[in-house]
Design goal:
- With about 325 residues, the chain is mainly α.
- The protein has one domain: CHAD domain (Alpha solenoid), CATH 1.40.20.10.
- It contains eleven helices and no strands.
- The longest helix is centred in the N-terminal third of the chain and has 39 residues.
- The radius of gyration is 23 Å and the shape is globular.
- Pfam families: CHAD.
- It comes from Streptomyces cinereoruber.
- This is CHAD domain-containing protein.
Amino acid sequence: MHNPDQSQDVTAGEVLAPYLHARAADFLRGLRLHGESGSDTAGAEEAARTLRAAARRIGATLHTFRPLLDGPWADDLRTELAWLSGTLAVEQACTSRLVRLVDALSRLSNGGGPVPAARGSESAGLSVGAARAGALLERQLTLARTRAHSAALQALGSARFHAVADAVALLASEVPLGPASAAPAAEVLDASAGVAERRLLDAVAALPLTRAAHPYNAEALALAAGEAQDAPWHQTRLLLRLHRYATEALYAGGEPDAVLYEAARALDRHRDAAEAASAAATAARTPRIAPATAYALGVLHADQRHEVEAARFAFQRAWRRTTAPVP
């Protein structure tokens, strides 16, 4: 992980501080965009994305390079940034999930998709239930999105958020470094980033990548407890993010690793499909729904679990390229 541009005269703090200053400036830009957005929905969404992206990067950097920082300060700010990022993410997740599910229902009811149950004589039953299933999902997810929007507005107006914003504003000019940050960057930064990389490698090694090497895993699709197998993949996604952000901090201004980004996108798609499948299953448990509606939701659930398997396949293909020997 050593950056060849880091000489022995450059300290870890001299590398880490400018990166954190820049991410804090990104956060403050998002805060300004939020203040300027008013009733502009698109502007508010852009502001939330900017705030979340900056919060994730700052939090990840505080986590990975904690040994070089003031530990209690880093822990406190990271906790608050995780709260903020998580709160702001829910509304956008509800919107994306609804779009994903409605689009999938439309595709399936028109005979598209690889789910066998959506074909043949049962396709008529699917068409009947798809409209009602879509309406049910829209009611449930719109309600969830409305609640998430209210929670986000409440959070952004709270004293807790203003305290976070004040802390990040200070970070834009001063980073509370610890004694270890005075050591050569090539030594201590690589050591901290290496811990994040090893955790990721261990997590990937524990995944069933051999099974994921088959794009449409009928055996996995047949498992009723498929959702229970998602957790290690979700954890790998978070560890890959930490690794990517650590690399970004070390190579500030460098080109991002395209293959690692592709692997990360595959795990994002995996998360999205898994959560969409869960939403379909939740809707199917709604009391007193018509059999045709329940049937459509069952087909939709199977379709999204199929998308989970396809995303795992895409991840393993990308990951194989990250570990391929250089010719």
